[in-house]
Write a structure and sequence with these properties.
Layout (H helix, E strand, L loop, with lengths): L6 H12 L16 E7 L15 E7 L2 H9 L5 E3 L34 H8 L19 E3 L4 H10 L10 E3 L2 H10 L5
């Protein structure tokens, strides 16, 4: 005779021995493949996390300046664009979805924080070349601007410079991050 304390253990072992093998994983029916949209975006829009939040759509964000994005769209490499400006004589359909701001930045140590449009024009076309003229330190002004083809540069040229030329002495930066890094690393930069 078995001791009473071993009876439940023996019963459990017998039940486990009668069990069939492990169950296979449940069969799942594959859902539809996500739609992949290739969207060209001005590099300032890439940081918006809401652009990639929907699991039913996979967005491939291609960052470049406007000229490159329009060329890629025409070649069939992109499905849509998010850009700052609409080029003249463009036959594509456009729909404004947001208003974007344009901000000028100076080196963090520069005390000059408020410029008029006329002063900005004079700085960027080279008529003013030292911060002391604007109430700042006796320091040469280093111009940093976006490359040709950039939507931000187009807006700056049209709305701020009023079609005046930006000085040929300006340092060109490919992307807003590059502009910020160049200005932060260069005393006297704007």
């Amino acid at each position: 005779m078995l001791p009473r304390s071993l009876a439940p253990l023996l019963l459990l072992l017998l039940l486990l021995g009668c069990q069939s093998g492990p169950l296979p994983p449940p069969q799942t029916t594959p859902g539809p493949e996500p739609v992949i949209l290739r969207v060209g975006v001005a590099d300032t829009a890439v940081s918006y996390p809401a652009l990639a939040a929907n699991p039913d759509y996979h967005l491939q964000l291609v960052s470049a300046n406007n000229d490159t994005l329009f060329a890629d769209l025409a070649a069939g490499n992109l499905d849509a664009l998010l850009v700052h400006t609409i080029p003249e004589n463009e036959t594509l359909w456009f729909n404004p979805v947001a208003v974007d701001g344009l901000v000028l930045v100076v080196h963090p140590d520069n005390p000059v924080t408020n410029l008029t449009r006329g002063e900005v024009q004079a700085v960027f076309n080279g008529r003013i070349s030292n911060w002391s003229t604007l109430g700042g330190p006796d320091l040469p002004i280093t111009l940093v601007t976006r490359e040709r083809g950039s939507g931000a540069r187009t807006i700056f040229t049209q709305r701020i410079m009023a079609e005046q030329r930006v000085s040929i002495n300006a340092v060109l930066a490919a992307g807003d991050t590059a502009v910020q890094e160049q200005v932060a690393a260069t005393p006297g930069a704007i």
